[in-house]
Amino acid sequence: MQRVEQNQSLILLSKKLYTNFADTQKDFDMLEKNMGTIDRTLRILVGLGILSLVFVGPQTLWGLLGLIPIATGAMGSCPAYLPFGIKTCKA
Length: 91
Prior knowledge:
Blueprint: H1 2-29, H2 37-51, H3 67-75
């Protein structure tokens, strides 16, 4: 009898985990691609330039802010574009 209850508990737990995973996927899909190739390339180049400030020039940790445009350029999605409905990609 205990084994049946354990199996039912595991089934309920797996259903909850799957539901949470499905909800997470829906949230992740919200970050659809909204940047074109030129926008992405420029962001990555500017991000690398800012990031280089950690190693050359003033050698300050403020250069780590360059990771933001690098990340958004690599993902192809800019969260700041979402509220304004801006899309620089063709499709």
